[in-house]
Queue: 3 jobs
Job 1
Amino acid sequence: MTLTELKEYVQARRIVSEREISLHFRIEESAIEPMARRWVEKGLMAIVDMDGTKCGGCTACADGIKRHYEWLGPQSVMFKK
């Protein structure tokens, strides 16, 4: 996963869990935060720690799915599956 791939994935979904990113790119969850931090430092992405509450996409997060990433920057990319 590159920084651009991470950006495009989160950008297309607006808010996504660390686990979803891990499954999509087939990487360890621990590798995501250091890369996401680059976008966070630029003010384009936010780390959202969920506490079992809902974010708008479902009823609530399953146990253990706490960290999400939200895209704050422009929405200019179409994500290809």
Job 2
Amino acid sequence: MLDNIFSFIVNYKYIIIFYLVIVGLVIWKWKKIDVQAKIIFLYRSDFGLKFIEKLVKKYREVVILIGYVGVGAGYVGLVFISYILLKNLYDLLFVADAQSGVALVLPGVNIPGLGVLPFWYWLIAIFVVALVHEFSHGIVARAHKIPVKNTGLVLLGPIMGAFVEPDEKKMSKQKDIVQYSVMAAGPFSNIILALIAVLLLNFAFTPLQDMMVESQGFTFADYYNESYPAAIAGLPTDTAIIGINGENTGTFQEFAQVLNCKEPGDTIIITSFDADGNEKDYDLTLIPNPDDEEKAFLGITTIKNNFEIKEKYQTSFWETIYYGLDWWNGFLKWLFILSLGIGLFNLLPLPIVDGGRMLQITLHKVKGKKKGEKSFRRVSMFFLMVLLINLFLPMIQKAFGALF
């Protein structure tokens, strides 16, 4: 028992230290902290208000224009994410072996197709996403001369974020388009942040890191389904795949180029390694892809390219640069995923998020306040149920599958 506790403390020492510091700060500033719903801790301040004022004073017209663009993008995103949610539910109910495209992205959890989200990536990315989201609301609000009362830090359990509080009473008196632009600013900024992250990743830092390494094939961590070709053939997980049909492939992208030319029913030979580290060929017969039956499918997920640092970069200095880039690229990947996911989630027609508030104003305008509010509640409750079913149905199906 004591050994397990000691091992836990050693493995998670930095995380434990981090939260001890946070608890210490909460105790130190307790008199200035507003506790809501027993688990939400708000620390209000004037941090960033001067920055917002300077930015708005210099670029007011540009901010207003971008805010209006965000309204259009926000409504497109609202329709898109609603459709994705409904389609995912349909697939779960009526498509055999369908995998859910909706999941809670939590640290330490293996997310199908993405891998395990490291704690520090999650913590830093969530904070950055929240900071950008909330400050965007404040910046657009001030561009329309809506007062911003304060900014601050928020703790929701272990999740740390930021918030900005515009004057809600004065904002409610503004024109509809102004209210839309303030609400859409947060999600729109998250989507822009995601685009910046993926552009930096693909066109700057990944090519820089790739220059320092030599490709050594790729691995996969999970089977899509135990009844699919890779599992049936016994293709081992976490073992480098280095070729297809006698052709050497250094990366998964090279492998996929050959695979994309094949059709369901074709037989291929994959070169990998056995348990003793010897090259071995595996014969597989491809099947239709669950998402597109015209495409061939192996049945592998959580794919990762393998690399070896080139000899000229195997010095302490260059290895530090390489692993720094490796950490940064991993962070940009998860920043992209989390920022895009949170941005789109905030556009769902739910009462607690920006997309719901935008839809609420629209329905009030179209149907009148009383009928519009009734319609909004119906729509928001419907999508709340759809979201919950999307999240928990796969867990229930998996639990019953294990039992029977």
Job 3
Amino acid sequence: MFRVASIPALSVIGEKRLFPVNRIFCVGRNYADHAKEMGVEVDREAPFYFLKAASAIVHSGAAIAYPPGTSNYHYEMEFVVAIGAPASNVPVEGAMDAVLGYACGLDMTRRDLQLDARAKGRPWDIGKNFEQSAVITPIVLKAAFGAIGPQRISLAVDGTEKQNARLSDLIWSVEELISHLSRYYHLVPGDLIYTGTPAGVGPVVAGNQITGAIDGLPPISLGITTAPAA
């Protein structure tokens, strides 16, 4: 008999219900300074995406092993949107009706593999979509968080700050992302959107402790344990 994998689920603060994760959409280069540090131009014609499997979910506070196949393992701190109502071909003006709430997330990345794939014009899956690469906190309801704007987003490694920006620095707003995605996918409750990372991404090694924060959300943390055997 094959074991049926359980569906990862997130806590929703203030509620007894859980949020079963369906899909994870990740937005590329959604902060201008991050695009610059990656050596590419900002694409202002339309946002672009890559996906992670729901099985990549890791709850904040976990300690995980350095992943196989890479020698350049990076953190990316992100503002995450949790979809709570169906959305298909919705206008920007009505896009927020689909939002349940928000969370802090880490898009962990095998940067060397991503850049190698990018240089060859190949998909990024091997650098982005792997086990334990989507770290996330419990969800804060939209009404409790309030309007998206000047909230600070930051990340530190072993207490040293590496990333520091504002949600107002997003190139494509949450409303624009939902509206655009809903032209190509039927968004449903359980979908997550990782909205992109600010400048300051960088490597971590075994023994590092990553901590991140967004004003109004629970802080996120992740420990990196010993590297796997060669």
